[in-house]
Amino acid sequence: MDNTSYGNRKINDGFFVFIFFIIFVVSVISNPVNKIALYILIPCLFVYSFLQNPRLILNFKPLFYFFVYILWSIITTIKSVNFKSSLSEIWLLLSIFVFSYIIVEFSTRNIKYVYIFYWLYVLKFWTLMYKGYTLGFSLNSEERFSDEMLNANLFGYLGFFAVVSSFFIWKVKLYPNKKSKNIHFWIFSICTLGSVTASFIAASRAGIILTVFAFSLFLVFNYLYPFSKKTIANVIVLSTIIFLLTPFVLNVYSGSTMETRFQIENIDEESRFKLIVEALNVGLENPFFGVGSGNFIFYEPTQHYSHSTYFEVFANNGFLGLGLFLYLLYYYWKKNKILFKLVRNDNKRTAWYFLIFLVTFGIYNFFYVFHTSLFLMSFFFLVSIHLHLFTRYKFQKIIDESNLSNRHIGHIDKNN
User: Fold this and answer.
1) Which of 86, 211, 225, 247 could form a disulfide with 195 if both were Cys (CB 3.0 to 4.6 A apart)?
2) CA 78/CA 411 separation, integer angstroms
3) What residue ranges do the domains of the chain occupy?
């Protein structure tokens, strides 16, 4: 490659990174910029990505099946009692498909974009924290944060994604940079602390539980796997740290809004449990088509969504819609199984890291509706293409090593 070509590529990459920075970060703090990102930048990037790789939807199955799910969602509108609500949800689904197509296409073209997107999710979370702070989001709040511009639960979602992103930047690289490992560890730690703090202030129960759960699993498989007697010392150190922090945590927790939200005397009276039961009943009464995209709220007395992706999809789109959504998780699981088989015993940590994301993301979808949110659902496609590319890289590496070994053996045989 000549210097001119290399320079042009650098300019192009810089331009696209700048555009993505506007979409991910600047749009958080500016509503006009957010509209420009949604209605101009993302559509233009999609046209560009589609022209670069028009067969991507066929080559990457998660995109294909998500598109099929959108088509099925359009069909289910025949059951809609509020067609406007259906159109609104279908528009959101199409936006997610378009944005996910962009993320997958850029990542497929160059693996470094995977890590650029991870960094952007980290920056997006901290920008959200800054904006929340300017609107009164702080530990001094005596009641749950509420603002027309920001949903309190958003801090939990994006905090969780920032934790996953920073960990993958630190540990899941095709070409590790040993010099940057320490700084990446501290970024991961700071993101975890920020996510826990944000979830606590926002009183996001699922956010704080799943952040701590993911953080713990990542550390367990990073420092203790493969499990042996040598890991006892590490367990003792981690247990001691947790023990020392417990009094401080309990002191902050006592009397907080979070404590109030965890005090459930009767699960049947828990609002989210009731919403899930209602969505399940609505889905069972309309098992094939559901009640139409975005229409469950009109079958619920308080006109509220179900707070669960699986039950929301089931109520709106029936068993087929739920099956199409679950296939996205199943495809990820199949690809993860292949990675487990490809990597050697001492490198299976990476496969475990990808599995940890699937488990935690899958659990998170029980508590919130992710499938109609642009940045929540597109994060799943980001990790999915990362897994796909990582698996392909490992497979190719095995083939190359096998060919090299065969050539070496042939060379010996020829000399003998």
Assistant:
1) 211
2) 68
3) 53-415
**Is the pTM above the cut of 0.85?**
yes
CA distance 188 to 209: 17
Decide: 176 and 120 in contact? Cβ < 8 Å. no
Question: What is the per-residue pLDDT across 305-336, written as a single tens digit (0 to 9) for each?
Answer: 898 999 999 999 999 999 999 999 999 999 99
CA distances in angstroms from 69 to 62, 111, 161, 283, 366, listed in the order given? 10, 27, 24, 17, 19
Q: Does residue 152 sit in helix, strand or coil?
A: coil
Q: Which of these ranges, 147-156, 159-168, 371-380, has the smallest mean pLDDT?
A: 147-156
Distance CA 213, CA 252 (A): 20
The secondary element (H helix, E strand) that includes residue 90 is: helix 83-109
Contact 296, 305 (CB under 8 A): yes
What is the token pair recorded at 77? 């509108």
**How many CB atoms are closer than 10 A to CB 53?**
16
pLDDT greater than 50 at residue 415? no
Helix boundaries (H) for 110-180: 112-134, 153-171
pLDDT of residue 386: 96
Give me Rg for the CA atoms of the chain.
23
Mean pLDDT, rounded, for 11-33: 93
Q: What is the dihedral of CA 310, 311, 317, 318, to 10 degrees?
A: 100
Q: What is the largest CA-CA distance in the chain?
A: 84
Buried b (16+ CB within 10 A) or exposed e, 109-121: eebebbbbbbbbb
| Beta carbons within 8 Å of 391's beta carbon, 6+ residues apart | 335, 338, 339, 342
Inter-residue contact 107 to 385 (CB < 8 Å): yes
State the Cα–Cα distance between residues 261 and 251, nearest whole angstrom.
Answer: 16
Task: Give me the percent of the chain exceeding a pLDDT of 70.
Answer: 76
